[in-house]
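Crash report, auto-generated. Payload:
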Amino acid sequence: MHRTLLAALGLIAFLLLWEAAPRFGFVSPLFVPPPSGLPAAFLREIQAGYWVSAVLASLRHYALGLALGTGLGVALGIATALYDGLDAALSWVIRLLRPVPGLAWVPFAIVWFGISETAATFIIIIGVFWINFYAAYGAAKAVDKDLLEVADAFGHRGTLAKLFKIVLPGSTAGILAGARTGLGQAWMAVVAAELFGVPGLGQRMMQASSLLATEVVVVYMITIAALYGLTDTLFVQLRDRLLRWQR
Amino acid sequence: MATLVDIKDLAIAYGKAPPVLAGFTAALERGSFTAVVGPSGVGKSTLLRVLAGLTAPAAGTVDMPMQPEKGRRPVALVFQEARLLPWRRVLENVSFGLEGTGLSKVERTARAQETLDLVGLGQMGGRWPHQLSGGQRQRINLARALSVRPDLLLLDEPFSALDAITRQSLQDELLRLWHETRTTMLFVTHDLDEAVYLADRVVLLGGKPAGIVRDFPVDLARPRERDTVNFSDAVREIRAALSESVNDGAGI
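Recovered output after restart:
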């Protein structure tokens, strides 16, 4: 209760400060649009139909990109952790590709897929792939060797049996920690992926900022924050359910 | 009695290092209870690992039942630490070894519950491992191995980490299970008192590479009493042989 109160007070103080800065002339309202102007801007965006269609389009890119990026990252991470040969073969390929920032892939996304939803999804996949790859790789490598031996002792000697009985359940906590980081990273990637003209929140933000409608930009910033808050809350519930065996 | 396990000229080595165990020959009678004692590092656990199929021997043969049957595995190992899978409930930990033995899920659950009842934890099936005490975890460790109804049960110092009272109650529990199931037991321990209390034969390992130094039959009547002269004499005799073999090994 004490913590909730402090959290509310902190948020109120932040909003008051934010409101006061442009209102008392410390900064131009163009630079820092006051929060009191945001509901009106939000209403205009909804009435014009921009908001709903942008949210739906971005959610589509987000869900697909996140699912594929997480799935591929986890799958390759676990495969490299399990097979030393694959690990060795890929080690320099990974060092080559890993540092390339998501934005650097935009020209290729456009060349390969055109200005399309596929291109936007591709950028999001790249944005979350590595986080999940390294989280899954590390988690699978850290699985207790003693438990792998228990599997051997009780006749579960094949790689698939070990994967499903020991490696996957044993690395769930690490995989989920990576997936949660990816959850936030993917929203950042959504904006980057839509900057080049694919409809969605990112595109709408770019349009508004080129018109200097900064209050609209802030409306979409808050929209993304709210969507992230919602997905993260749902994810934490799912995680706690999956990890209920932990003390 | 019929021979269940026949070990001939077994040698165990790690890599190119000199063998830990060499020329090891022994036979285990079906339904017998054998304790293996010896100084630490002599290769007691390694011997169990070879019999459990976790380590390949460098030489020699082990003749023992190998074919799994429906709902059974010929050999099961009780680890020194419980090594329960923390993400499985107790009942699912007990049925771990039954998976892949041709039983349906319902049959596995029934067998696991039956084995859980046998070790006196029938009510605990729905708990998570971290909710159990150390003694309860070792009982589950034991139940997991018993559930596959093995011909040979290998036990690697399973009670060494427990307090004295829990240890003694689990020793009695193990003897009761042995009488009920007639499973052949091979029990590694460094506790001579425990060896004499449980086994009808105590094998002393020693030397480098290790082999059988002495093979003591324990003819004391059951249930055994620790406070009797016969019991103390048996423990003392083995302790003397153990000290002697340790001193020989150290070159004194």
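Post-recovery validation: The first helix of chain B runs from residue 44 to 51.
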